[in-house]
Amino acid sequence: MFVEGHHELAKLSFLDVIVIAVYFAMVIWIGFYLKQKANTSEEFFMAGREMTAWIAGLSFVSANLGSLELMGWAGSAYQYGILAAHWYWIGAIPAMLFLGLVMMPFYYVSKTHSVPGYLKLRFGEPSRVLAAVSFGFMTILMSGVNMFAMAVVMKVVLGWDITFSILMSSLAVAVYVTLGGLRSAIFNEVLQFVLIWGGALLVPILGLIEAGGWTKLQANILANYHGLDYTHMWRGLAHFSTNPMGVHWTGIVFGLGFVISFGYWTTDFLVVQRVLAADSLRSAQMAPIIAAAFKMAVPFIVILPGLLGLVILHNPDGTLMHLVGENAVSAANPHSYNEVLPLMLVRYCGPGLLGLGITALIAGFMSGMAGNVSAFSAVWTYDIYQPLINKKATDKHYVAVGRWATILGVVVSIGTAYLVMHAQGIMDYVQALFSFFIAPLLGTILLGMFWKRATGAGGFWGLLAGTATSISLYVWVKLDPAALSVVAFSPDAKDMAENLYRALWSWVICVLVTIVVSYMGKARPESELNGLVYGATVLPNEAPVPLIKNHWFWASIVIVVFFVLNLMFF
Predict the structure, then answer these.
(1) What is the CA radius of gyration of the chain?
(2) Which end of the chain has fewer beta carbons closer than 10 Å to its terminal beta carbon, N or C?
(3) 336 backbone dihedrals φ, ψ, rounded to 5°
(4) CA torsion angle for 252, 361, 156, 78 (degrees, to 10)?
(5) 8 Å CB contact between 418 and 487
(6) Cβ contacts of residue 449 below 8 Å, gap of 6+?
(7) Each residue of 12-61: pLDDT tens digit?
């Protein structure tokens, strides 16, 4: 099984091996230790709803900070420049604050176990099943992306065989999530959050020193890549052809900043599940705000290495190295965009530090994959198995089903990892998945939560029409590339821009169909909407707290920093 499939760029020292081995031992020990606290379904799937705001918040952001984030966005930064940072600021912060301040009370008060579970309460069983199946499908594909990203690290850095790398790391995740459930995943994610930052900080700090600082880095990028603005976030967005992403500001603001961002951060059960595990409504509202504060700093360890790669990576003959898409790798260009982070890691990390850096990426892989499989396990058990296959089983039986679903999710994910190898870049693939499943779900959730007139039939047909629209547009452009000028409003749009506008189309169709079908039917009485719809819900009164503990105060601080960062890199 252990076969070298690629020429390695570095070899692990004994100290590196010790660092990695200690990490694996710790995560598996946590799984065994917490097994005794995962005996009921509430404990296994929702961590007993005992997490503090800080633990839930760090787990919230860590579950999103998988290796696909580290690898994928570093690669996208090399490909598209600092525009990739939009996914961390306008593409995350407003939506995370909206989740904490506005949506969390509805999720928490309804005591739902999942986002599809909320749809059942609001729109009925058909909408719940459709959302659960879509989410399960997307989650498994996303888990495969994490596996592929980890395998790329092992291939580039150590020359390990890709299959061996996938099996080794996925086995560890399967063990600790199967044993300890969501509680084990959350505690490991907090550990992994610390390791990711500790290991990943080395590359941007050492890289900036070598590049001579931010100003000199900007000048060198401009000298190497004439005509396209790689270092400003908004200046080049007036036209599709004046930025590396081939996108217009309308795509960033409405496609990313609203549809994809709000869809992911407020309806993707992978992240919402962490907040639902909080010990109180106040903790549930603070957790996304804490996570947002840390999220704004992530570009320093993810986007900056990609930008540094544009000027620092050179071939053995001294010429500037040019990375390409996965489907364009050749003898002349042996490395893809996705490999920029491991290439930078090898450049700066010696014995001991290399082990720490690789441990950070392994931790990222495990946190991302554990997030996907624990969410898949909960949705499979609560929203597919229980309502459709076995409604009257014991609680112990459902915990067993959850454990088997975790193993099944890992096994199926291994197969999907190989699908990603044909995508140009990891994040192009991920954003395409979001446009298929997350964008229409946002339309359904928002209308369900804020419009009393929405009916069960409207919710179901709107969600189905939005999903079908997105997939149809994707197939249309694949069959006829000229259709890009219709879907993305410009023939100069690139893959990422197409994803943003496709998501916007999907959301619009979902909302229109939901409204039309709802007006054709009879709305539910307002008395049945308590806990489900804004304006018909009696929210619990919370005792006044000092300003330092007020979630509105901290949300205000975060939003001010958000605007300052955008102005600094305008």
Answers:
(1) 23
(2) N
(3) -100, 170
(4) 20
(5) no
(6) 103, 106, 122, 532, 533, 534
(7) 778 888 888 887 788 778 777 777 776 676 666 666 677 888 888 887 78
